[in-house]
Amino acid sequence: MNSNLFSAVKDKQVLVTIDRSSIIFHILIVLVLTGLATNFFTEYGIGGFNKYAIKHLAVFSIILLSSVCWKLRLMSTSVLFIIMVYINIVSSTIYLPFRLQDPNLNFEGYFSRVEMIVFVMALLLAVFEKLWHQFMVIGYNTAFISACIILYPELSIGKYILAFILISSVGAISFFVFSRVIRLQNELQKQHQLVQAQNEELMELTTFRKDIMKIIAHDLKTPIHNISMLTTIIRNANSNKDRKNYLELLQQSIDKTYGMLDNLLNWSMQNDETLKSYMDINLYELIENIREQYDQNLDEKKLKLVNGVDKEFNLFYSKEVFQTVLRNLMTNAIKFSPQNQRILIDNIEEDEFYSLRVHNVAQDVDDKKLLQINAGEMVTSSLGTKKEKGSGKGLFICKRMLKNNNAILNLSKKGNGVTAEIQIFKSIPLNQGLGVA
């Protein structure tokens, strides 16, 4: 047998699995017990409580006791099955010397009956148990035939040889045939698992694409709100000069919003390999660019954004992922900050990771929600300090993107506020690819 066949047999050596809920196995137990009970009463009716009746009663008791232990979950299904098979084989052969002393014995009929039992039990073992049992049965049957030849030479040697060839060849053939069937079964199972994994990956990717669109909608709320406010201001402007200044601001806001929308849509439509593209990012400049998109919101709540990130610090990371997460954190910081407060963004470097932190003052922080968010669970969105609404999915999606890009996001309570910390690991595990899918 080649190494592939051995590995297939090692992976799964059983052709058909039996379990506690198998109706067929329950029926098999009942049939075996019924057969043994019938044999006991037959022997008892012929010769009373003789050694044959005692043998059938002993086997019946062993199997019945084993079945009770099995029902009580004190014994596995496989052990019970092996006990039933081997005890039938052994009990049919072990009292050969007593049978030879019986003057009414038809030895040829007895020998044929034993070989039939061995044949059936061997096939059952081949189907429901590990294949090496075939050689155990062949070896035991060979010993039984050898004992018959010695103890009862009157029977033709040709019949002994025929029985040996029949049982041995059927056992060997069933071993190799079932081994190949099991190998094919394993290959089909692996293919099924592969297809299932691909389907799960496709579903996950589809879900991620939907989440990206939700992030896009979330990120566009702020600039579109600013545009709406500017159009209102322009409509109510008292002079052409003011109107002209506001139109310039409106044009800048529209251009920034269009650029952000274009980047987000391009990112969401790209393939996985493109999503894995990393580049050098200057965090200070990136934060300053994002700050411009939130100027109107910061002014509206009289908040001050302090960019405390090292101006010379560059990070090798996915710009799209980082921008999306940072925008979400800044939106939340503005949303939950009371008026006349400040939002601080700074960075630190540890031995194993780089860290970017967003600090903001927050009132009535829900500790339970912080724990749920850090555990990667989706939470119900809370209203902001000016009744701002949200979907509650932003941080959930951000944590997922960071996790798939060798980073994590943690929220913690710091004094009278909250700190959101992005930790980007310096080393990448060998079994973890970069990307979002």
Give the key terms.
single chain; 437 residues; alpha+beta; Heat Shock Protein 90; 2 domains; five-stranded mixed sheet; two-stranded antiparallel ribbon; 15 helices; 7 strands; disordered N terminus; disordered C terminus
User: If you average the pLDDT, what whole number results?
Assistant: 78
Task: Please report which band the strand proportion falls in: under 5%, 5-15%, 15-25%, 25-35%, 35-45% or over 45%.
Answer: 5-15%
Oligomer: single chain
Low-confidence parts lasting 5 or more residues at pLDDT below 50?
1-11, 429-437
Task: Describe what you observe in this structure.
With 437 residues, the chain is an alpha+beta fold. It has two domains: 3-196, no CATH class; 277-437, Heat Shock Protein 90 (2-Layer Sandwich). The protein is built from 15 helices and seven strands. A hairpin with a 2-residue loop joins strand 6 (407-414) and strand 7 (417-425). It is rod-shaped. Mean pLDDT is 78; it is low at 1-11 and 429-437.
Reconstruct the topology from this structure.
Layout: H1 3-11, H2 23-47, H3 51-71, H4 77-93, H5 96-100, H6 107-128, H7 133-151, H8 157-235, H9 240-269, H10 272-275, E1 279-282, H11 283-293, H12 295-300, E2 304-308, E3 314-317, H13 319-336, E4 342-349, E5 353-361, H14 367-374, H15 394-403, E6 407-414, E7 417-425
Parallel strand pairs: 2-4
Antiparallel strand pairs: 1-3, 4-5, 5-7, 6-7
Summarize the structure.
This protein has helices at 3-11, 23-47, 51-71, 77-93, 96-100, 107-128, 133-151, 157-235, 240-269, 272-275, 283-293, 295-300, 319-336, 367-374, 394-403, and strands at 279-282, 304-308, 314-317, 342-349, 353-361, 407-414, 417-425. It has 437 residues and is α+β, with helices and mostly antiparallel strands.
